[in-house]
Amino acid sequence: MGDELRGLADLDRIIHEPARLLIVTILSTVESADFLFLQREAGLTKGNLSAHLGKLEEAGYVEIKKTFKGKLPLTVCKLTKAGSKALTLYRQQMARFIDSTG
Amino acid sequence: MGDELRGLADLDRIIHEPARLLIVTILSTVESADFLFLQREAGLTKGNLSAHLGKLEEAGYVEIKKTFKGKLPLTVCKLTKAGSKALTLYRQQMARFIDSTG
DNA sequence: TAAACTGGTTTGTACTGCAGACTGGTTTGC
DNA sequence: GCAAACCAGTCTGCAGTACAAACCAGTTTA
User: Fold this and answer.
1) B70-74 contacts: CB < 8 A, separation 24 or more?
2) Which of A8, A37, B37, B100 is the most buried (most CB within 10 A)?
3) CA distance B54 to chain A (A)
4) B21 touches chain A (CB under 8 A)
5) The domain that contains A12 carries what CATH number?
6) What are A14-43's pLDDT values in tens digits?
7) Which residues of B touch A18 (CB under 8 A)?
């Protein structure tokens, strides 16, 4: 068996989860994004998004800044260097797998 | 956001799990495989492999035949048509995602 | 001032993956 | 001949996960 397959075993589970893969991918295309924008784009419930952002922040993949837009709270999310790197690595692993088996 | 991203939301979770992706990918390269061969190739514990095979069988993605090799039990696994199709679809979705964002 | 909305967080539940304990049978050592 | 080790798997318990619904603090609208 090729290494591409063995590589599957150590995929980054933080990134591998589809909802989070969606989130980080969206974040990778913008400078930053607020909570509701992400919710609409990703099609997630608030609770779900909140939880996933929590994990991504804990993993050091996104930076979350709580501010205010006028008087309303506003949560702004931004992919970190580490997050960007993790996403790139993940895509490389997946691409390797697909190329090797497709 | 492109459809490639939305597509992430409905990835086949049965296939998406790395251990199972590994299993079905291995099975896609051989006519059939017995339990211990799969265990060695995939690097999984017996318990783990047994559970995953159960799910794959339940999903209709693998066919499991219990026979004997001499006097010892032997479990032979084979990818079904549906399993092969599911794997192909999964790879297409992933390829689409990677191409669109890479 | 009450009702409805905004922008989220916390809670509860059901599912999942995983390793280790266990089972039924077989071969080996003594 | 029988105990110990081994083979081929399954079952069990636990820790972690995702998800939606309930909740909360504050703000705008009626």
Assistant:
1) B74/B34, B74/B35
2) A8
3) 19
4) yes
5) 1.10.10.10
6) 999 999 999 999 999 999 999 999 999 999
7) 8-9, 11, 16
